Amino acid sequence: MNPPPDSPPAAQQAARSALSDADLLMSHIGGDPHAFSEIVRRHRDRMWAVALRTLGDPDEAADAVQDAFVSAYRKAESFRGEAAVTTWLHRIVVNACLDRMRRKSIRPVADDELVEAAERDTPVPDQTGDRDVSMEVSAALKLLPADQRAALVLVDMMGYSVEDAAQVLQVPAGTIKSRCARGRAKLAPILSHLRNRSGLTRVSSAKGAELRDG
Predict the structure, then answer these.
(1) Cys-Cys link to 61, which of 51, 129, 204, 211 (CB 3.0-4.6 A)?
(2) Rounded to an integer, what distance in angstroms lies between the CA atom of residue 26 and that of residue 35?
(3) Average of pLDDT values for 25-47?
(4) Residue 141: helix, strand or coil by DSSP?
(5) Angle between the 35-55 and 21-29 helix axes, to the nearest 10 degrees?
(6) Taking the mean position of all CA atoms in its chain, how far away is CA 126?
(7) Hey, is 202 helix, strand or coil?
(8) CATH number of the domain that 95 lies in?
(9) What are 71-81's pLDDT values in tens digits?
(10) pLDDT value, residue 162
(11) Is residue 15 part of a domain?
(12) pTM of the full predicted structure?
């Protein structure tokens, strides 16, 4: 239920905070000028994390998130409730990222180029901080085709189940499994030193990037 228009601002904010995402979206569609701001407040950090890990560039990620929220604001009436609002938002953000990647016409790196890159890399010191590891993972992800990168970000970095990632990307679960498997296989020669390092089977839980062979 929307807060009474004549109630104090603090009371209105408290009432909005108690609403579900779906109710907020309906309030936005119904004309509440502040409802969508609450949706942005709730989800912007996670949307930013998805965009940054998908694009690997803070400026591009910021633009993608802005594009996505503008699109969600304008197309709110297209939400049919068939998935959670957060899934709907993730789908819009990922699509905004993929659109940016396609516009840049990034050429996927061939398998033999990945091998060459791994062979010419200098050994990594044993004591590498989580930030450095995360940067290595982000750089490696940029070598993958857009579809594989998006699947790996959702499943391995954001912790989505295969089924939830399939909902976000609107493809069958089997396609997500296949994309993740191919992406992990391509990254293996470049990131193997991270898996083999003592006590480092994944990027820190704060980053959420699990390094695994699949």
Answers:
(1) 51
(2) 9
(3) 93
(4) helix
(5) 120
(6) 29
(7) strand
(8) 1.10.1740.10
(9) 999 999 989 88
(10) 96
(11) yes
(12) 0.69
| Average pLDDT estimate for 98-108 | 73
Q: Is 101 exposed, middle or buried (0-12, 13-18, 19+ CB in 10 A)?
A: buried
Residue 210 C-beta-side C-alpha neighbours within 13 Å: 11
> 146 and 193 in contact (C-beta within 8 Å)?
no
**Which of 159, 160, 147, 154 has its CA nearest to residue 186?**
147
**pLDDT of res. 205:** 33
Is residue 25 within 8 Å of residue 76, measured between CB atoms? yes
Rounded Cα–Cα distance for residues 213 and 119 (Å): 19
Binned at pLDDT 50, 70 and 90, residue 194 comes out as low
| Percent of the chain predicted with pLDDT > 90 | 49
What's the distance, CA 133 to chain centroid? Answer: 18
Q: Which domain holds residue 190?
A: 111-196
CATH number for the domain that contains residue 117: 1.10.10.10
Smallest Cα–Cα separation from 48: which of 104, 89, 19?
89
